[in-house]
Automatic annotation (TrEMBL):
<feature type="domain" description="Creatinase N-terminal">
    <location>
        <begin position="5"/>
        <end position="131"/>
    </location>
</feature>
<dbReference type="Pfam" id="PF01321">
    <property type="entry name" value="Creatinase_N"/>
</dbReference>
<dbReference type="InterPro" id="IPR000587">
    <property type="entry name" value="Creatinase_N"/>
</dbReference>
<dbReference type="InterPro" id="IPR036005">
    <property type="entry name" value="Creatinase/aminopeptidase-like"/>
</dbReference>
<dbReference type="InterPro" id="IPR029149">
    <property type="entry name" value="Creatin/AminoP/Spt16_N"/>
</dbReference>
<feature type="domain" description="Peptidase M24">
    <location>
        <begin position="138"/>
        <end position="341"/>
    </location>
</feature>
<keyword id="KW-0645">Protease</keyword>
<dbReference type="Pfam" id="PF00557">
    <property type="entry name" value="Peptidase_M24"/>
</dbReference>
<dbReference type="GO" id="GO:0102009">
    <property type="term" value="F:proline dipeptidase activity"/>
</dbReference>
<keyword id="KW-0224">Dipeptidase</keyword>
<dbReference type="InterPro" id="IPR050659">
    <property type="entry name" value="Peptidase_M24B"/>
</dbReference>
<dbReference type="InterPro" id="IPR000994">
    <property type="entry name" value="Pept_M24"/>
</dbReference>
<keyword id="KW-0378">Hydrolase</keyword>
<protein>
    <submittedName>
        <fullName>Creatinase</fullName>
        <ecNumber>3.4.13.9</ecNumber>
    </submittedName>
</protein>
Amino acid sequence: MKLSRTNKILEKMKQQGINQALISDPYSIFYLTEYLEHPGERFFAVLLDENGDHKLFINALFPLEKDLELEKIVYSDTDNPIELLAKIIPNGSVVGIDKVLPARFLLPLMNHLPENKFVDVSQIVDRVRMIKDDEEKELMRRASILNDTACQRVINSISEGKSEKDVAKDLLSIHEELKVDGLSFDPIIAYGANGANPHGTVGDRYVKPGDAIIIDMGGIKDNYCSDMTRTVFWKQPSEKAREVFEIVLEAQKRGVAAVKPGVRFCDIDAACRDYITEKGYGEFFTHRTGHHIGLECHEYGDISSINETKCEPGMIFSIEPGIYLPGEFGVRIEDLVLVTEDGCEVLNKLNKELVIIGE
């Protein structure tokens, strides 16, 4: 197990009077053990114990030869894993349950242990995962460097005869060439009016002169995710499109400049949103400014107008303001930032100034 990570969770459990914690989120289990498994409908969990007697529950379908430095309890499809679990948890203890444990497991466990108190432990685990250690920071840097390279190749691949779907297929080939392990989310390749939908679906559209092209993409490398967005133009953009692009770019730069320890997430959001509003496009910035990222593309925490959580060194999140004009076009620019001791490190290095292709 990763003892430094485990001990941080145990310390916070102790502060809140939690005796055991049942961790069933596969990514949180990987965070603690460096073992990733997606068990489908089968029970899969780590039981953290205040006395250090940690256990992994895993179905025999998933052979595990690696020594994870905790007791392994293997059960078959004819066993009842919740009965096995209930025999281990002391009566009357406080048990932390994470947010992804299905009710089909939690409710029987509660029936087996009527004298126990069950509480939500997700905030503890999620907040520990928010602060990346040195190993994670380096993995996130590497993932972002690969994403920069892949994004530039995607931009280079766009041509008049290629649909959005064609470019998305190119991305898969580019990832294979770069030895990226997979997609961190379904990419968005949005031409023209399709970009006015912040999560536009890749389709059969072909690029037209003047189109804004939103490219929102990310990959997985060594289990860590990347994410970035660039907006480029096919041939000459209109004056309005240029204006909107420059507004989004300045808003994004202001958001990045606001990032440092002690600054509230809502203030980073305001740095972007207030500028876009001042320029007359506030109603067309329809989403939060960013999200946290790591083992998952969207992790706990967001950069929004209502989140008063303060930045801490080691946090990694996106800054991605946008303007979306229905029936016309959209513009979004996104970088990942790592909070440092005195500011932030921008993980994406790819040019984000105005780019015109196809000329």
